[in-house]
Amino acid sequence: MKIVYVVGGLLAPNGMSSVLSAKINYLAEHTDYELYMILTEKAGQKWYYTINPKVHWVNFDINFDELDTMPFLKKLFFYQQKQRRYKKMFTDYLMQVRPDITVSTVRREINFINDIPDGSKKVGEIHFNKSNYRNVHIPILPACLNRYLSQLWMERLQKQIARLDSFVVLTHQDAAHWKALSNLQVIPNFITHIPAEASHGNRQRVIAVGRYDRVKGFDLLIEAWKQVCQYHLEWHLDIYGAGNREEYQQMADKMGMKDVVHCNGPVTDIDTQYISSSLFVLSSRNEGFGLVLVEAMAAGLPVVSFDCPCGPSDIIKNGEDGLLIENGNVQKLADAICWMISHPEERKQYGIQARSHAMKFTQVKVMEMWQELFEKLV
What we know:
The chain contains 12 helices and 13 strands. It is α/β, with parallel strands linked by helices. The N and C termini lie close together (8 Å).
């Protein structure tokens, strides 16, 4: 079986590239599939992720990423130019390779992939939830016009998605938002390993992980921690991630929590940090899946999470391995953290259950779902 994956770029760490590279490497190592990979960004630069040498690859060197640095009108002009080039190169490549399956990440190629007569089954996999995908935000336009353009853009996307042979989303919660699709499939993300050790739940330490971005809600978590530390001053909150952590640390400092809230940069061995903690908190406003929840649970951590769209409700068994909190409710988040701290035996039992439940998100089990889909299509 020949499979072409559309990856885009592998130059910097991000969730989608991490997942795609892990999938491709797994299939290269554990199947006899003939694998191909399409890249579009900065040919000749070193990749952040390592790809199995069995994988064939091509880089069209379109460089869509540079559009992000351009003013709107200039971006619009160069996007059309790049898109035409991308369509021609993409079409020529598929007609040459003649794959059995082409896997799109439902980005720029979704506009033309269904019309390429190469004979392959077209599969789309989306790494974002529907409610936070294709939202137009052009600063020079009024909000009502941005909403109208977002609606038109999404309607156009759905027409193309409906033509795919299969459309894969990460969660059942998100699947409910893609209505009237007969090609819908739910396959979650996976973790690549289970830590040999697990947290004992005895440390007075809570951990959160993610990039320092508004969507991750660390401002809400710090606000909640102000209430937590009124009752549990001996407990500490450690946040790990890439991005501008200084503004969040300053926020905590101004609230008088300099000694109990620490905003750290990314670390190469996050498992060590999970294991040396007793509770994981996810305060995101929204998620595509929330893989950090599974990573923390695999390390034996109970979790407290906002029930945000989409992911936590697919991962957490509320009252068994963690607590799901009304999305955005800072008071209830603080109360749930305090409950976990005040009930050490229940907390430890939640951690044991969390590690057990995380096993359904292992790479082997999830990739079996992908292989079953591929075999069924072909």
